[in-house]
Amino acid sequence: PARAALGELALQAAARGVPVLRVPRRELDALCRGRLHQGVCLEATPLRFQSLEAAQKAALGDAESGSRQLLWLVLEQIQDPMNLGALLRSAYFLGVDRVVTSHRNSCPLTPTVSKASAGAMEVFDVYSTDDLQGFLKAKSAEGWEVLGTVSRPEDVDGVPVISCLEFQWNRPVIIVIGSEGEGLSLETQLLCHRMLTIPPGRALHPGIESLNVSVATGILLHSICSQKRRHGD
């Protein structure tokens, strides 16, 4: 089955004008720098983040569409490529309208990210901004609700915390995810209207009180996206 799949892949590549070379496995290993390649490697130009500022100037019209529920995912300083890829995969699958990352201290769009995203990175534009707080302030002024995320409600001061199960979606939403180690910065937390938390299913042992960032985000996105109205409702 694996040989047949590789043969089909070679035929599809050739049909699209992509040259196909058969090389020894050690050469594939070298091209992939020792990472798992499953018998195939594609040389391609790097993907870059799209400029959020340029997209905003283009007046795409998303925010003006009152007939739709809009959901943007904002990532603040996600640094692990496997996490970023998993986040993009979940966002694409669950119907997130746009993903925005902070430019500073964020993982670039590497081949590892693409592999972890199961190809979602190749078909789903990812935007980046140099001024994350300014962007959130602007969207809030436009009427969007900015939702932060937190593992432990006691870590938040001055912003209401609710369970993701209590959230009611009635206007465009931005959900902001913080870095793997530190979570959301204080400056970003203070721009959130509310913070979402995931209720645990048991009393948690100290030190095992949080979820992997990509897993937590998948749960939160599903909780929100399950409220999405069907077209025509």
Structure in a nutshell:
With 233 residues, the chain is an alpha/beta fold.
Q: Summarize the amount of helix as a percent range.
A: 25-40%
Q: In the CATH hierarchy, what is the architecture at level 2?
A: 3-Layer(aba) Sandwich
Helix/strand/pairing class, anyone?
alpha/beta
CATH C-level: Alpha Beta
Number of strands: 8
List keywords for this structure.
233 residues; alpha/beta; Alpha/beta knot; eight-stranded parallel beta sheet; 33% helix
Descriptive notes:
- The chain has 233 residues and is an alpha/beta fold.
- Helices cover 33% and strands 14% of the residues.
- It has 9 helices and 8 strands.
- An 8-stranded parallel β-sheet has the order 1-4-3-2-7-5-8-6, with helices on both faces.
- β2 (71-75), α4 (81-94) and β3 (98-102) form a beta-alpha-beta unit.
- α4 packs parallel to α9.
- Belongs to the class IV-like SAM-binding methyltransferase superfamily. RNA methyltransferase TrmH family.
- This is rRNA methyltransferase 1, mitochondrial.
Helices and strands, with pairings:
Layout lengths: L1 H14 L9 H7 L18 E2 H6 L13 E5 L5 H14 L3 E5 L8 H6 L3 H4 L2 E4 L2 H10 L3 E5 L11 E3 L9 E5 L8 H4 L4 E4 L15 H13 L8
Parallel strand pairs: 1-4, 2-3, 2-7, 3-4, 5-7, 5-8, 6-8
Helix pairs in contact: 4-9
